[in-house]
Amino acid sequence: MKGTVGELGEFGLIRELTSRLTSTPAVKIGPGDDAAVVTAPDRRVVATTDILVEGRHFRRDWSTAYDVGRKAAAQNLADIAAMGAVPTAVLLGLVVPTDLPATWPIELMDGIRDECQVAGAAVVGGDVVRGDTITVAVTALGDLRNRSAVTRSGARPGDVVAVTGWLGWSAAGLAVLSRGFRSPRAFVEAHRRPEPPYHAGPAAAELGATAMTDVSDGLVADLGHIAAASGADIDLRSAAVDVPAQMTDIGTAVGVDPLHWVLTGGEDHAIVATFPPDVKLPARWRVIGSVTAPAGRTPQVTVDGAPWEKAGGWDHFGDDA
Ligand SMILES: Nc1ncnc2c1ncn2[C@@H]1O[C@H](COP(=O)(O)OP(=O)(O)OP(=O)(O)O)[C@@H](O)[C@H]1O
Ligand SMILES: Cc1ncc(C[n+]2csc(CCOP(=O)(O)O)c2C)c(N)n1
Ligand SMILES: [Mg+2]
Ligand SMILES: [Mg+2]
Ligand SMILES: [Mg+2]
After folding, report:
1. Distance from Cα 316 to the centre of ligand 3, integer Å
2. What pLDDT does residue 319 have?
3. What's the CATH fold of domain 160-307?
4. Which of 2, 92, 153, 249 has the fewest Cβ atoms nearer than 10 Å?
5. What percentage of the chain reaches a pLDDT higher than 90?
6. Of 49, 50, 51, 56, which is best to mutate to test ligand 2, by the most ligand atoms within 8 angstroms of its C-beta?
7. What's the 51 CA to ligand 2 centre distance in angstroms?
8. Pfam families from the entry (predicted)?
9. Would you list the domain boundaries of the chain?
């Protein structure tokens, strides 16, 4: 594909984007009409939206358009999974400048389509608008398959806290990229293309999870949302949290305690959940802490009994963002 988005025009671009999509049996009417029609076997539809903005969430010299597409889909599909639901459909709101090479949105679409396929969903529509800053706004829908939604508010004192998926890998990759390096590859790739354990969301619901979330802003920060919504404290055992040797090596090289990445790094979209104490968890879950009765007025997350640094996570309007 030669030329720019402007040369292709709005409807030329839409044609290019939608011609690359695949469907699923849940999609009764896909892109091309005023709206899509998706079956909702459960009748309750799980819906979520998350935005990626160039310069803030991704850089074109760090990630390909395909990577950004994978990530934009992944962060939304992870939110569906974190409710205990199975993703069904995705919509893409896209803002692009007119002089952007047309290959960029096209490869983005390929990435979104492929990540949706990993999770069993399909892209069913979207919108394209001209704007100065590339903005990728994804909306995802999901199906609870007759299970109850697992919210952030159900954690109870005595529950265990368990996690599955990667923690700190994206943050370590970001640290590498922001210092001008491109390796170790595994961490840089983890930053470019997170791999949320989608299947673990519905599986956790089936295992009786009392509260659940995906880790987008950082483990301590996201567990803070569970603590606040549940009115309980959470204590993490740092020894139970895996810090890979290679991450320690990067930490030494750049002067960062790797535990900081594991506890406060977002964007890996691991799934963290609380379960009743007698739960039998499959091996992919690691028990990393416990829920306790609230000690003070504000529910707290502690690490080995003590507060971890500041809030411990990403805040778009915070000092570090
Ligand atoms: N602009 C908004 N309008 C309405 N609701 C919002 C808005 N922004 C956030 N929310 C809601 O607030 C809650 C928390 O949002 P938040 O974005 O922190 O969750 P998340 O998507 O799981 O995290 P992350 O954005 O880090 O992936 C969600 O239920 C979200 O739908
Ligand atoms: C270029 C660049 N600079 C910084 C970061 C780090 N970053 C951006 S958003 C976010 C948390 C989740 O955001 P949200 O709450 O919007 O899902 C993090 C850790 C990045 N990915 N790219
Ligand atoms: Mg969000
Ligand atoms: Mg989330
Ligand atoms: Mg999210």
Report:
1. 11
2. 76
3. Phosphoribosyl-aminoimidazole Synthetase; Chain A, domain 2 (3.90.650)
4. 2
5. 95
6. 56
7. 10
8. AIRS, AIRS_C
9. 5-143, 160-307
